Amino acid sequence: TNQEDCDIGKRFKMSWFGKKKDKHTGFMGDLSGSQQEALDEFRKTIRDNGLTSDTRYDDYYLLRFLRARQFKLDKALKMFKDFLDWRVEYRADEAIVLYKCPNIPEARKLYQHGYHGVDRVGRPFYIDQPCKFDIDELLQVVTKDELYTYYVREYEKLLHIRFPACSALTGTKIEQSFSLLSIEGFTMGKLKEKSREFVKIAISIGRDYYPEIMAKMYIVNAPFLFKGAWAIFKPFIDEKTRDKISIVGSGFQKDLFKYVDPSNVPAELGGKCVCADCEGGCFFSDKGPWHEYPGDEFGEAAKQQLLEEEKKDDPVPVPVPVPAPVVTPVPVPVPMPVPAPDVSSQSAGVPDVPGLGQVTVQMDHMQLGSPPGQQ
């Protein structure tokens, strides 16, 4: 019948084109029935298999892996298992405290990047200028391994310090960031092998172990030649992430300011901020609510441990000994002996000297070397 033909046609379209795309975002509070079922099953499988009992892996955390794998439970479970194995191997739980590279401050002078306030909805605002440094010069200051661990440490700080602080500021759950990538000065010469490896490291860490962190990225100041570079890196970025990236030229400020207030954009990128009170300017200020609001229990524990280690590292002040005063002995005047009177002189008519006899008596009783006044 016509109705049967219609039903067959519908079934054919469903099997050929797949299921209708779910309009729900997959974030907490906006889950479809099937997404909620996947989350419940995901959580139960992790618990029943004893994969982890760590309280940091709440539903918000697990949903990131489910969204990254389009709520396909088997793929999300494999991704999460690989993630847990990696965390053990790289001691990621201790990354904030453990991975402290002393050369990073020097490296940041070459490679300008960092968090700089928040966007209009309270998400951490990250800025990166990858074309303003030479990779060979950077690798003279830090190694590839140090860069890797630095990225891991920054992701852990983002999850456990920056996001919770932004959530406290806004009163809503903040679990993603907004990124601005300025590639002013890009040339094809920047695509040397070491540069490609550097970019792949940054991409792979976020893609494999910290999925669904980025809400939006603007790649700005992109010259025409950048299309060739984008073709190289595009395959390393999953489709869902690529959809969050906008590539524009130099006239980006008007569109950017819809998302970020100009007061949080450095002046050199068309904003109003200069961070005059910070040595090095905006890229060294790390300004944001994470300096006023606390992180979660893991972030606060890490900060406390860092403070304790800093106290241990501070040199204990050694008291400077005060030298005892040098007592200079006061010289005692030694009296000159007075010659006895010449009796023969008196008999010869020499007159007597008044008091001469008294002096002679005093000399007979004087003790040489006694302190003044005790003679």
TrEMBL record:
Family matches, as Gene3D superfamilies: CRAL-TRIO lipid binding domain, N-terminal domain of phosphatidylinositol transfer protein sec14p
Report domain CRAL-TRIO positions: 103-277
Which positions are tagged coiled coil? none
Q: Which CDD domains match?
A: SEC14
Q: Which Pfam families match?
A: CRAL_TRIO, CRAL_TRIO_N
Q: Which PANTHER family match?
A: CRAL-TRIO DOMAIN-CONTAINING PROTEIN YKL091C-RELATED
Q: What is this protein called?
A: CRAL-TRIO domain-containing protein
Organism name: Euplotes harpa
